[in-house]
Amino acid sequence: MSQAKSYQIVWSAGRFPFERPSGIPDTGQTQCYDNEKEIPCPNPGENFYGQDASYNINSQSFTKLDAQGNELPDSANEWTIVRDNITGLIWEVKTDDGSIHDKDNTYEWHDIETVFIKTLNDQQFAGVSDWRMPTIKELDSIADYGKYNPAIDSRFFPSTKFEDESLYWSSTSWAGYIAVNAWAYSFRYGGLDIENKDLSHYVRAVRGGQQAIFPECVDNGDSTVTDLNTGLMWQQATNSEMNWENAIKYCENLSLADFSDWRLPSRKELRSIVNYNKYSPSIDTVFFPETMPNRYLSSTSSHHFADAALGIHFSQGSNDANKDSSDYIFVRAVRGGQNRLLGHLFIGSPQQSSTWQPGNSMPIKWLTQNISGNVSISISREGGKADTFVSIANNTPNDGEFEWTVPNTPSVNCMLKVVPVNAPEKGTTQGLFTILPPQPSNLSFEQTELTLHHMVQTMYTVSDPDSKKLTIVAFSSDPMLVPDTSINLGNGSNNYPIDLTPGEPVSLSLTCYQADKNYGQAIITVEVYDENSLSTTQQITVSVTPFHSLTCENCEITQTMGMVSAGGEHYLALKPDRTVVAWGVNEYGQLGTGDTKKE
After folding, report:
1. In the chain, where are the structural domains located?
2. How many angstroms separate the first and last alpha carbons of the chain?
3. CATH number, domain 442-545
4. In 123-234, which residue ranges form alpha helices assigned H by DSSP?
């Protein structure tokens, strides 16, 4: 058994790891082709096996929703929005009623946010106010390459414009001239165009977690790269140029990094590694350093022109089409995803590209196909290499469900296997998905700069993604101003062990008491330690003011008389009018909220 790799995964600031799409939707192409025409789909080992229709990974799936987001049957005649069940995105449905949603409305690119999107959000279309323009990759995700005029499932997306010159704006600017041009999409055949932003085109609004504009990759150190956004593993190097038929054979027969299940990517998969923020080449060359700013082949054929294979030009991420046997084009292989086969088990959870914290309860779910007996469940943290699967359950009923607590074994190349004990040939695998390293606690303060008038208080929130117990400790940079013992984390102490539910925030109060008549500035440091010995630190600044400046609003204190004891600690000050101001802490550890005056 080979040694498992360790990875350091750093998430972009403000990004919550679970907000990920669950893989690249299938192109929808079910027809098979040779170099010239449609043919019966070949079997494994036959010529042209390995093209797009040879694989059924993340089949397109949509659900009609009403204006309140309630699910409707596919047969519903009226619906307001559509959910893509693969990406989780929610799409606007176009109408023919003259409204803001009318299919004939067009906009210049610069006006879309301020006119169209703002109107949807101001009106809280479908009960929400987070509608936006789609990226070019998101528009491509709902295209159906098995259709033409329009290249989209009109059962769910009616009134889609597809005639010549019918284009839909994306939010993606062209990296070659960001200020002037942006990408637009044609649903006539699934085409892309670079358009001047002053032109008027159609728009379809979307909402939901935005799919990544560029990949989030990990170099596996074995000539492969894993894209965490999609759960796909890529051949890192660019292979020699070859024609379409030979490219299919090459990928099907490729043995790389101890994997033998490589394939030629579909056009949607190939587009997923395009970085539309880059130009010539339009890819992250840190992870794909040998990529040529040229044409790359995909496994997808043109539905309208059978002699054309659809590819991507990596000078700028534009479309390309060519299947000429004498035309040699660059190739990059891919692997990952669950190929859905008739009669085989099918894993519904975890999903491809999903992300899990140690300690999470992972619901493993699969379609049983009514196969009798038990199943074995196992996981590989090395992408599914032979002899790397570790048992989760050796013999559990084939009832379609199993709860598993995710261990502290991080990897970006996890693959799950479920196999019927009595029919192992009908098993299946799902991947790639990620188990994160233990993550530190999250700690945030309502205020980070405070003024201490004898006492000051602020609220703070603490949470942890994978621990049930935390220890919170606070200490002061200047005990003469704020002693450690005068810091209350919410339990009357500066040391607070708490129980919590992983992922659920807890709100607490931090209170500081002034030590004496000294004044100045102190830094309060709060540290949180979790069960994995990870720590998080935050600091707040406390400006301690003199006592006499705080005991009376409209008068000048002439003398501070010191501390007296009266069921607690109180300070007295003499005012010019001969009245006395008192303040302090009572026997319950509470500070008075106002001046106490006595003649």
Report:
1. 62-207, 346-435, 442-545, 556-598
2. 86
3. 2.60.40.3880
4. 136-141
Report which of 379, 499, 378, 354 is spatially closest to residue 436, judged by C-alpha positions.
354
Give how far Cα 148 sits from Cα of 161, 311, 550, Å.
Answer: 12, 17, 77
Q: What is the pLDDT of residues 227-253, one digit of tens each?
A: 999 999 999 999 889 999 999 999 999
DSSP for residue 301? B
| Residues 262-311: tens digit of each pLDDT | 999 999 999 999 999 999 999 999 999 989 999 999 999 998 888 899 99
Domain 62-207 has CATH 3.30.70: no
Q: Where are the beta strands (DSSP E) in 28-130?
A: 32-33, 38-39, 62-65, 71-72, 81-84, 90-92, 107-108
Our CA angle for 276, 281, 286, nearest 5°, is: 90
Where are the extended beta strands (E) located within 138-263?
168-173, 181-186, 191-196, 200-201, 206-207, 217-219, 224-227, 232-235, 239-242
Residue type, 266: S
CATH match for 346-435 among 3.30.1360.120, 1.10.540.10, 2.70.50.50, 3.10.180.10: 2.70.50.50
pLDDT of 149-169, one tens digit each? 999 999 999 999 999 889 999
Residue 253 has phi, psi (to 5 degrees) of -100, 0
- What token pair was written down for 187? 């649903």
**Apex 126 CA angle, 123 and 132, nearest 5:** 75
